[in-house]
Specification:
- The complex is a heterodimer of chains A (279) and B (311).
- With 279 residues, chain A is mainly alpha-helical.
- Chain A has 14 helices and no strands.
- The two termini of chain A are 36 Å apart.
- In chain A, 37% of the residues are buried.
- In chain B, 38% of the residues lie in helices and 29% in strands.
- Chain B has a six-stranded mixed beta sheet with strand order 6-7-8-3-9-10, sandwiched between helices.
- The two termini of chain B are 33 Å apart.
- Classes of the chains: A mainly alpha (279), B alpha/beta (311).
């Protein structure tokens, strides 16, 4: 582990990232968006209900919305942070030198991914004090927060690895950005659309119950999986309707871990030319 | 030691490099000369394990580039013709990063970095940001970077390109120092005289093919089997051209009307040349001077590459 973290690329990337003013402004705006939302929500709710009350049920709703906002921000920021990791080195003409060093391809890719993930984790963790506002009003168990943070971690790890993969495979950062955002949109919006479509069609065809295909679309959609983590009852309903007892988060984890492994493998194997391939 | 056998790189039907065979002994400084696009960078990129050859093989200190590229990378210090630097990284940190990339521990890096900066005359720039250094300084820093893991072989692709004359001289001095340290250096340039004085041997590459290689002197001698003779005349040149054309040992006659000179390649011996001079005088041509031109390396390079084009 020590060897993994003593990765020169990782250390250099983190150093450069925190010398860059952009990182701090990014952090500032991230927290600002979350802060405005939480205080705005509390303010609105308590003024609507009158008398300045903020009940646990409302607190839970705030928590749910906050979780969605954070998921949205993660999905929005991760491609931007990772899709240029390798291609920008190529564009800046620093990649060739890096590739002739004694570092293994895995070390380079891992260092690049980990430095971006580290910054994303910083964003998520720096939002914790805002989350803690929710605890003031009750209604949410700390274990639930832990589960949701693990879910964030897996999601940003996978989207990040996809960004690094596209950045390795494409020559230009702009192409890599577009494809990474495209994949993120596919995993969230397009799967959501297919989910609605399959639920509607199977509902019409089978009367009651929905097709296992709906389960598949639901299980790879982070927004739906987050819903089952916030409202475990929703998961039971899906299991009942599709006849698949496996909780959505399990399928989600398996699917996303497989994507992660594939993306990392592709990035590592394609970073350098295979000198032996022509034989 | 570098051994190259049948190295070929093909893009479609275009040969960027064609059947290159070359052996560079340990401690030699080998200059690779050729026009832009001749195949120098292709060769260097393959040797640096950055480009896959279409055919052929190369060994760096006995390690095959195709079978053991990881070990090859440890053996070489590579400086590309175009390279960038990281923004917001200081000179010392830049070298520290690459030192760590070669697995040097912090203590080794601490000792090495000041020495390398001293070697490339950048000791005063240790805490300056790399992207703010001048082009010449960046080139020197890149050279220091290539040396950080103490490789026995240096592959330097146009290390002096884009530098002003002073920076070129500085670079040359550093390279001389490296040569004295016993490094095997493979260096390329499109300007031949720049290399001649520091190289033990030269290879001239044109359109992907090695057209000549050997010691600087042997290349010079090879071409000097044909001398360039200049004849200055007081009268019209046409008569002189007609006269020299009749000699079977004369080729490539050119007229310089303004300079009133006829120039040609002559492959005869010194005795033949004496006979030719006597015949010229006897023919009644208004000769002002008859002289053998000094050919420099630049001319040789032009001559060798021109010869290939006409084949």
């Amino acid at each position: 582990m020590k060897e993994l973290l003593a990765n020169p690329v990782l250390i250099k990337e983190i150093k450069l990232r925190f010398r860059n003013m952009k990182s701090f402004t990014g952090l500032f705006f991230y927290l600002m968006v979350m802060g405005i939302f939480v205080f705005g929500f509390i303010n609105l709710t308590s003024s609507v209900t009158g008398g300045g009350f903020f009940r646990p049920a409302e607190s839970f709703m705030l928590f749910s919305m906050l979780s969605y906002i954070q998921l949205g921000l993660i999905l929005f920021i991760t491609p931007g942070l990772t899709a240029g990791t390798i291609s920008s080195e190529r564009e800046k003409q620093t990649l060739n030198i890096l590739l002739t060093t004694a570092q293994s391809s895995f070390q380079i890719i891992f260092g690049k991914l980990l430095s971006s993930i580290a910054f994303l984790l910083l964003l998520v963790v720096s939002g914790l004090p805002i989350y803690s506002m929710v605890f003031l009003y009750g209604g949410v168990a700390p274990s639930q927060i832990a589960v949701i943070f693990l879910f964030y971690f897996l999601t940003l790890l996978v989207i990040g690895s996809l960004g690094v993969m596209y950045s390795t495979l494409t020559r230009r950062t702009i192409t890599s950005m577009i494809v990474t955002y495209g994949t993120t949109i596919f995993l969230t919006a397009v799967t959501g659309f297919f989910l609605i479509l399959t639920v509607t069609l199977s509902g019409a065809a089978m009367g009651s119950g929905i097709s296992p295909l709906s389960y598949f679309w639901a299980s790879i959609n982070p927004a739906v999986v987050l819903l089952t983590l916030l409202e475990p009852g929703f998961n039971d309903e899906i299991s009942l309707a599709t006849g698949i007892p496996l909780p959505l988060w399990v399928s989600y984890s398996i699917f996303y871990i497989l994507i992660f492994i594939a993306a990392m493998w592709l990035s590592v194997s394609r970073l350098r030319v295979n000198m032996n391939k022509y034989r | 030691m570098i051994e190259i056998k049948g190295l070929t790189k093909k893009y479609g039907s275009f040969y960027a490099l064609k059947n290159l065979n070359l052996t560079i002994e340990k401690g030699t400084v080998f200059g690779f000369v050729g026009a832009n696009g001749a195949g120098k960078t292709t060769t260097f990129s393959i040797l640096a394990t950055l480009l896959q050859p279409t055919a052929g093989e190369a060994w760096i200190n006995g390690f095959s580039i195709s079978e053991n590229p990881h070990e090859v990378r440890r053996q070489i210090g590579y400086m590309p013709d175009f390279f960038g630097v990281y923004d917001q990284l200081k000179t010392e940190e830049y070298l520290d990063f690459y030192g760590a990339s070669y697995g040097l521990d912090a203590q080794q890096r601490k000792v090495l970095i000041p020495q390398l900066l001293e070697l490339v005359n950048l000791a005063g720039k240790r805490y300056d940001y790399v992207d703010l250094l001048s082009r010449g300084m960046k080139q020197r820093l890149c050279l220091a970077r290539a040396l950080i893991h103490d490789p026995s072989i240096l592959i330097l692709d146009e290390p002096a390109s884009g530098l002003d004359p002073r920076a070129r001289v500085e670079m040359r001095e550093i390279l001389k120092e490296l040569k004295a340290m016993g490094k095997t250096i493979l260096i390329s340039s499109h300007i031949l005289p720049e290399l001649a004085e520091m190289c033990d041997s030269l290879g001239v590459i044109d359109s992907g093919e090695l057209v000549a290689h050997g010691s600087v002197q042997s290349i010079q001698e090879r071409l000097q089997s044909e001398k360039v003779i200049s004849v200055k005349l007081a009268g019209p040149l046409a008569e002189a051209v007609a006269f020299f054309e009749n000699d079977p040992q004369v080729s490539q006659i050119t007229e310089n009307i303004e300079g009133r000179t006829v120039q040609f390649l002559y492959k005869g011996s010194d005795e033949d040349q004496l006979v030719l001079l006597r015949r010229t005088m006897a023919s009644g041509l208004p000769v002002l001077s008859f002289s053998e031109e000094e050919t420099d390396l630049e001319d040789i390079f032009m001559e060798i590459t021109k010869g290939v084009e006409t084949i």
